[in-house]
Design a protein that fits this description.
Dna Ligase, domain 1; 30% helix; 5-stranded antiparallel β-sheet; 423 residues; D-amino Acid Aminotransferase, Chain A, domain 1; binds adenosine monophosphate; Rossmann fold; 5-stranded parallel β-sheet; binds glycine; alpha+beta
Length: 423
């Protein structure tokens, strides 16, 4: 089988790594890929959002399966385009991807189906937003409804935070059209976890659970980022809690989408907030999470390609997703300045010096004059699996210790919450 992966970050590197392990796979290409992916697959210089060019390429090279990493092409309808050409692709249609593409639509959907989430109001101007803030009280969360690269949710703990958020959304238009609609949400307390589930339109199958670390600095301080690290599984999603997530969230979403004429196929990523009352939805993504996927896939014992084929053929109910024992941890090494402006082009040293068994997934890297250099905000996801969370964490940080580049920074407390829970 020939498999094409679309995207060029750490998530796509992990996907390429896992897909290559399938005995059915004979060729893996990635568009556009990065310097790390290029060590394992052919990289094709087509941007992830160039839907027509990707479709043309996949047809010409007769790929049997295309796997989409990022949300933008999914929301833009890449699955619809491929299907119309008779090409097999793993992911939701544009209509189904609305779960991520419009937080306003997502909230309305969740309310229609009685699925637990934060109370919210969708607004179009600052005055209406202030009314909603008064309704929910502070803290409150103000979100651009559309796609904002993971940076469109602002947790406001003071009136000044609210003013600043509304200024960014409505006056400065920092998020552009993504903030034409703004969702004001009640603040939810609890512990966050992510559940990535395969879906075939009717059935779903959760992958091992995980926990992201969205804030920039240790102790969950600093601004939100795309994700500074992840571990899997998330101890808070034990079997009874996962059963509740399946029954109260994943099942109703999959059946609700089918009932509304937009059956959901691909990966449904449920960002959850869990407290004494149970799980509630923070957000949905219509794709694999990044960096979660880098921690989740090393814990998947079964064949991801088989699962994705089953999902595209409506056979998921018969699939058995098997988790490996133990735990996996991914620590993101970021460029100086990230998540704000950052410098690129710094030479990365030590990539070949990491201890055996450590996986170095590349996120923002490029090759220049035979050297690997930084080319993005999140540069590497240094990942290790181990018999338990302690062993996996120690191995990942041992791997990171071998690597350096100018301005490199990372959190030193990835998985700390899971480690504390063990004590
Ligand atoms: P989102 O982009 O919707 O995933 O939000 C980014 C982050 O903001 C989440 O991972 C949470 O940490 C936080 N967040 C979002 N919505 C809420 C909420 N209603 N209550 C508390 N925290 C939230
Ligand atoms: N790590 C969060 C995301 O993939 O959106």
């Amino acid at each position: 089988m020939r498999v094409l992966v679309i995207g060029g970050g750490g998530r796509e590197h992990a996907l390429v790594w896992k897909i290559r392990q399938s005995p059915r796979v004979t060729r893996v290409a990635c568009a556009p890929g990065n310097a790390g992916i290029a060590r394992e697959a052919e990289c094709v210089p087509i941007r992830a959002d160039a839907v027509d060019a990707l479709c043309h390429y996949a047809a010409r090279e007769r790929f049997d399966l295309t796997v989409v990493g990022p949300e933008a092409p999914l929301v833009a309808g890449i699955v619809d385009t491929f299907r119309a050409r008779g090409l097999r692709i793993f992911g939701p249609t544009a209509a189904a991807a609305s779960l991520e593409g419009s937080k306003a639509w997502c909230h309305a959907f969740l309310e229609r189906h009685g699925i637990p989430c934060a109370a919210s109001r969708t607004v179009r101007d600052a005055d209406a937003a202030r009314d909603a803030v008064r309704l929910f009280g502070i803290p409150v969360v103000i979100k651009a409804s559309g796609l904002a690269a993971g940076k469109g949710a602002i947790v406001c703990r003071t009136d000044a935070d609210v003013d600043a958020a509304l200024e960014r959304m409505f006056a400065q238009r920092e998020f552009g059209a993504a903030a034409d609609e703004v969702v004001v949400e009640e603040f939810m307390d609890g512990e966050e976890a992510s559940c990535l589930a395969l879906a075939d339109g009717a059935a779903f199958a959760p992958l091992p659970s995980s926990q992201d670390h969205k804030r920039l600095r240790d102790g969950d301080q600093g601004p939100n980022t795309g994700g500074m690290g992840a571990y899997a599984p998330a101890p808070i999603l034990d079997a009874p809690m996962q059963a509740r997530v399946d029954a109260e969230i994943l099942g109703p979403v999959i059946s609700g989408m089918a009932a509304e004429g937009a059956p959901y196929t691909g990966i449904l990523y449920a960002g959850l907030m869990i407290d004494a009352r149970g799980p509630r939805v923070v957000e949905f993504n219509c794709r694999f999470g990044d960096p979660e996927t880098q921690a989740v896939l090393p814990l998947l014992a079964s064949d991801l390609v088989e699962h994705m084929l089953a999902a595209t053929e409506g056979r998921l109910a018969a699939e058995r997703v098997r988790a490996a024992p133990g735990a996996a941890v991914c620590v993101v090494a970021a460029s100086g300045g990230y998540p704000d402006a950052y410098r690129t082009g710094a030479r990365i040293r030590g990539l070949d010096d990491v201890p055996a068994g450590v996986l170095v997934f590349h996120a923002g890297t490029a090759e220049r004059d035979g050297a690997v250099v930084t080319s993005g905000g999140r540069v590497l996801g240094v990942t290790a699996a181990g018999p338990d969370i302690r062993a996996a964490t120690d191995r990942a940080y041992a791997g990171l210790a071998a690597i350096s580049f100018e301005g490199m920074h990372y959190r030193t407390d990835i998985a700390a919450r899971a480690l504390a829970r063990r004590r």
